[in-house]
Specification:
This protein has seven helices and twelve strands. It has 253 residues and is an alpha/beta fold. Strands 6, 7, 8, 9, 10, 11 and 12 form a seven-stranded parallel sheet that branches. Strands 1-3-4-5-2 form a five-stranded mixed sheet. The mean pLDDT is 92.
Length: 253
């Protein structure tokens, strides 16, 4: 079933109007018609879980909006029980596109690009804004595809010190996958200590990994270095692997 995110506070007497890019997608790309149904999730950000999935029926189309009627509401259970903030070292080329897409599919709630010492790409001005906007669109598309209850947010680019300060203020636990950390038994033990409702920050380095000074700085902020296994992972693989660990921890009965 088609899913969109919308501002449900605009709904009146069970009637909701959907415009913008979703209007074009529903009408001209999917070629949906009156009588067809679609799922709508509250347009909330990564700070809170949406209250459910709202089933609507298309009533009609205006020149710029889809007019829908509410049929039912059901509880949504597509979110990890912990909020996950990904602080991703800025990678080269289009790797960030892949990282955003896959981590949103796997349950991340916030993505914060970080300019680290070994980040080769430098973003500023209009180019920086365009990249952030692009990544947010990718996040929205991935959230729709994976039936997320919330719309994960891609934040503005920041420096390592700023990222660590944000993590210390926002998260209950801070993890840094680090190739010098041996064995995954310690990782398993740390993940077992996590409880539903907690906020987890994870830092992933760019190509070339972290500078030792960055690891020391992270540890000063209370971060714990962990292993993601016996193999060295690419920057675009590390965050999805960490989220897979969390999925195993909380969702596999």
């Amino acid at each position: 079933m088609v899913q969109v995110f919308a501002d449900l506070s605009a709904m009146q007497d069970g009637i909701l109007s959907i415009g913008g890019n979703d209007y074009n997608h529903i009408k001209n790309v999917l070629r949906m018609h009156p009588g067809d149904q679609l799922a709508v999730r509250p347009d909330t950000d990564g700070n809170q879980e949406g209250s459910g999935e709202y089933l609507f029926e298309i009533v009609s189309f205006s020149e710029s909006t889809v007019i829908c009627r509410l049929l039912s509401v059901r509880e949504a259970q597509t979110e990890l029980p912990v909020r996950v903030l990904l602080f991703q070292g800025l990678p080269k080329a289009d790797k960030m596109d892949q990282i955003v897409q896959k981590t949103v599919e796997l349950g991340v709630t916030d993505i914060i690009p970080v300019q680290m010492h070994r980040s080769i790409v430098k973003l500023s001005g209009d180019k920086r804004k365009k990249r952030i906007d692009r990544w947010q669109l990718i996040a929205e598309a991935a959230a729709k595809q994976s039936r997320r209850s919330i719309l994960p947010q891609v934040h503005d680019l920041c420096l390592m010190r700023e990222a660590l300060a944000m993590a210390a203020a926002e998260a209950d636990r801070i993890f840094v996958p680090y190739e010098a950390e041996a064995g995954s038994a310690g990782t398993r033990a740390l993940l077992e200590q996590l409880r539903p409702g907690q906020r987890v920050a994870v830092f992933v380095g760019p190509e070339g990994g972290f500078e030792e000074s960055e690891i020391e700085l992270a540890r000063e902020q209370g971060a714990q270095t962990i292993s993601l296994g016996r193999r060295i992972l690419r920057t675009e693989t590390a965050a999805p692997a960490f989220l897979a660990f969390l999925t195993y921890r909380f969702e596999l009965d």
